[in-house]
Here is the input.
Amino acid sequence: MESISNRPADASARPKIHPALKITLELGPLLLFFLANARSGIFVATATFMVAAVVSFSVSYTLTRRIPLMALISTVVVIVFGSLTLVLHDALFIKLKPTIIYTLFAAILLGGLAAGKPLLAVVFDQMFHLTAEGWRKLTLRWALFFVALAVANEVVWRTQSTDVWVTFKVFGVMPLTLIFAALQYPLLTRYEARAETSAPASDG
Here is the structure.
């Protein structure tokens, strides 16, 4: 079957982060954001989130010497919208940040599909080996999921208090993402790219 090459030799040579540290780097900034908001309010939480996001990204890059596209986008948007929140003293901007990120992710994935390049294959380069059809289907699902998250973020921040929105951002989005990722397991197994064994060449 047709498959997208993941360059196993190159991938295996790249430094990898221990799973526990990877989870800490991903969840740490969100948890600090939640705790800072509960203790000191949204503006202190925003500043804390910005610093934690930059530290997390820097540690990840130092350990792997790689710049993941989505992590880079997330960090840049956090800095830009966090700065607007603090300078203008308006929580609107930090609340818009997830909507912007999810929309950008969806647009990037859908744009890649339209161009015949399922970019999710690049994002998950070290984790999965799927056929081309598998990458297309998985990419479309994640793009639609990001659209759903963008809509959900808009609904929550526009209809609920800041504290409820922060709680949803920290303790709602992550579980939803983990559940969605787990539900993709049947697709991953169905479209797994298996190494093809070549038949011995005949002498004629």
